[in-house]
Amino acid sequence: MAAPGGGSGRRLGCFVAYATRLYVRRFADTHLRMTMTSTAPDDTRAKRNVAVLVAAQAILGAQMPMIFIVGGLAGQSLASNACLATLPISLIVLGSMLAATPVSAIMQRWGRRAGFLVGATAGAVGGAVGAYGLYLGSFPVFLVGSLLTGIYMSAHGFYRFAAADTASDAFRPKAISYVMAGGLAAAIIGPQIVKLTSQAYVIPFLGTYFAVIAVNVIGSVLFLFLDIPTPDRPSQDAPKGRSRLELLKTPRIAVAIICAMVSYALMNLVMTSTPLAVVGCGFSEGDAADVVTSHVLAMYVPSFFTGHLIARFGAEKMVAIGLAILGGAGVVALQGVEIENFFLALVLLGVGWNFGFIGATSMLAAQHEVHERGRVQGLNDLLVFGGVTLASLASGGLMNCSGGSPVEGWTAVNLAMVPLLTLAGGALLWLVLRPDAADAA
């Protein structure tokens, strides 16, 4: 197998430069339009909060690609059974799922700042415990650190909601987009830190987990500048809305959750195994970091226009396109294990996740009342991240225990996409062909 040449690095550099120019140009154009509109509402506080959250997304968010790059590799070096290599990633997702309700309750009672500080603290502690597990060579200790990191991941998921809290109706979608776009910076910063730190000590990846601690400590200072009021408690006579079972019986809600779960689970299934496959096929950890960088950029760059496409063509069509692109990622991955295949497959995986997950979220958002929001979002996150947990668990088993070589394992991972894509595609087709589909849309 040929070693990766300078071409892939140049292509990644061009991709990063293009994404950065797109982000700067879009931000500048929007800011200019808002400045020239004298009748625009005063969003001074919201803009300050967005600036804080964009910085937090870029700095604190960088630890997620860092951990996803090295977590499976570190797990593979520590676990007695190679099939458990991706268990650390699975426990991060499990921790996020278990922490979602408590973190949300903390924010409801004491405000966003308190919840985000809890998340950053858990991220630092999780990094410290993970580093200690590497130092001891203890897989169980390392897993405890991963579970704690899941608390950070849960809090991180609320950044985009916090951006909307103080924004006007006109500025709210832009505020959310800007915060999501901060993930572009995280996609670049995180993997570069991995390159600098993964072999900084005799114990592999120990330096990366030290860097995770520093990222959380530095990033947590940003939340001192956050200015979001603590929400009022709901009154006793507030409407209760539908039960969780009633919500699940609503066809569009059920299909939206299925499509969101499949989109996120497939993205995680393949991404979790990617560093193992890249390194196992003869490439370096730096190459694995570059592939993950391209993937995370592809997850966030489409956010600049996904909303416009959904508004023009409808959420269902965008979900269908997203599922098709996810299938295309699997097809590309199955064509070979050259570095170009990894890059293209992971870019398609990111774009497919963006269309599928954001489209499903839009479907869900249109099918519930304001007083049902917390219940619907909680139910959605529980099922989606439950599916993601199972996918990340399956990823390591498929990659390391489905054949005698990394190539055979990588093939098994991508073939596993077929039944889940069939489930989501079938559910979406059933919804569209329902007699009342036109009235419900």
Integer average pLDDT? 83
Instruction: Tell me the overall shape.
Output: globular
Main sheet properties: none
Strand composition percent: under 5%
CATH class category name of the largest domain: Mainly Alpha
CATH-level-2 architecture of the largest domain: Up-down Bundle
First-to-last CA distance: 51 Å
Number of helices: 19
What is the number of domains?
2
CATH topology of the largest domain: Growth Hormone, Chain: A
- Contiguous uncertain segments of 5+ residues: 1-6, 34-39
Q: What is the helix/strand order?
A: HHHHHHHHHHHHHHHHHHH
CATH superfamily of the largest domain: MFS general substrate transporter like domains
Coarse structural class: mainly alpha
The counted number of beta strands is 0
Please estimate the helix content.
over 70%
* Radius of gyration from the alpha-carbon trace, in angstroms: 21 Å
Keywords: Membrane, Transmembrane, Transmembrane helix
GO molecular function: transmembrane transporter activity
InterPro entries: MFS, MFS_dom, MFS_trans_sf
Pfam family, one: MFS_1
